[in-house]
Each structure stands twice: as C-alpha cells, then as structure tokens.
Amino acid sequence: MSARNRSAPRKRPRQERAKATVETILEAAAHVLVTSGYEGTTTKAVAERAGVSIGSLYQYFPSKEALVAMLLERFHQRALEVLADKLAPHPITDLEQEVRELVRALVEFYGVNPRLQRVLLEQAPRIGRLQVVQEIEARVESLVQIVLAQNLEFERPRNLGLVVFIIIRALRSAVWAVVVERPELIGTPEFVEELSALILGYLRPQGDRRKHSTPGVK
C-alpha cells in the first residue's frame, strides 16, 4: 500500500452514529499519540482506548498514518476558523494592534494541547502534503492578501502574493519551531511581541522602518 493510500481515510462517516464513532476514535488517537508518541502508537492501542473493535477502526482508518492525517486536517481546519474572523475584510486603523491580535490568536491556538500538536507537526512530513491542508493554507493566504490589498500602501512596487507567501511561511515556521523546540515560550507576551515585530518590520514602508529603528543602530 502506498504512503498516500495509507494516510487516506477508507470512508467518511455519514450517519450520526458513525460520526460519533469516528470522533471517539480520533480522541483516542490524540490521547495515545501524546502518551505513547508516534512510534509507540498502534491502531490496536487506539481501538482499545476508544472502546471499539479493531475492525470498526479499520472501517474508517486503514493505518495510524490515516489517523494522523485526519488529525492534521482537523487541526488546520480549526486554525482557519480561528483566523477567518480576524482576517475578514475590514478597514485597518491601527496596523500594530491588528498584527498583534492576529499573532496572539494564532499563538493561543497553537498553545492548546501543545504536546499533541508537537507530535502532529513532527509527523507531518511522514504523511505528505494533504490536498485539504493545501486548500486551507491557500484560503488563509487569500484572506491575508485581501486585507493587505485594501489597507496597505507600499512606497515601492511589491508583489503582494509573494509578500503574503513570505509572511505566512515566516509565521508558520516560527510558531512550529517553538511548539517543537521551545514549548515553554508558547503564549508568552515576549513571543507574541517578537513575532509581531518581525511581521510589522516587514510590512512597514522603508521610511517607517527607519523611523522605528533603534537609535544608534544602522
């Protein structure tokens, strides 16, 4: 079985009872991943934790890779839900406040169950690029680009699509690195402030960057 097939769910639940079973299985998978790690996680352990037969689990998930893939998909879907409200098109009157609120919301989201998120982020390369995750990331980029296009004027021509691409990747890389390497920093004011400064420094026109630079530093 190819890696792609192993990470794909066998079928999506349609009836309420089936949906409840899948929810129970995913909750159990999250618990086992946190307590046993990826290598120690087995479909048998997940089924036992969920209180279902291994056959019931295999109706929906052919492997633990499929369980992780579904948890990753839901993780990104919830991130989109968190960010969508912040990124709804609206006039920006205070760029610094807007950026800090966005960064704070993102950091707070990643701060929920960081041990599980660490496992998911570490195993994401093993699962491969998921189409649903790619679609969610594209949606986030679209929302960011709309807000910036409506509110920011740059003193030099800039490729807005590239600007957004860099911002999203910078935010994601920094937050993922903290979740995996320095989880004690998640949710701290210092991390939110430094990440906000990174984005603000990149977004401000060059004149504003000089104006906000530290005295004596060239």
Automatic annotation (TrEMBL):
Q: Which Pfam family, an example, fits this chain? A: TetR_N
Query: Where does the HTH tetR-type domain start and stop, copy by copy?
Result: 19-79
* PROSITE patterns the UniProt entry points to: HTH_TETR_1 (PS01081), HTH_TETR_2 (PS50977)
- Provide the residue ranges listed under DNA-binding region in this record: 42-61
Q: Which residues form the signal peptide?
A: none
The identity of this protein, by name, is: TetR/AcrR family transcriptional regulator
PANTHER family referenced in this protein's UniProt entry, alphabetically: HTH-TYPE TRANSCRIPTIONAL REGULATOR BETI, HTH-TYPE TRANSCRIPTIONAL REGULATOR RUTR
Question: What organism is listed for this UniProt entry?
Answer: Archangium lansingense
Write the record's keywords in alphabetical order, separated by commas: DNA-binding, Transcription, Transcription regulation
* InterPro entries documented for this protein: DNA-bd_HTH_TetR-type_CS, Homeodomain-like_sf, HTH-type_TetR-like_transc_reg, HTH_TetR, TetR_C_15
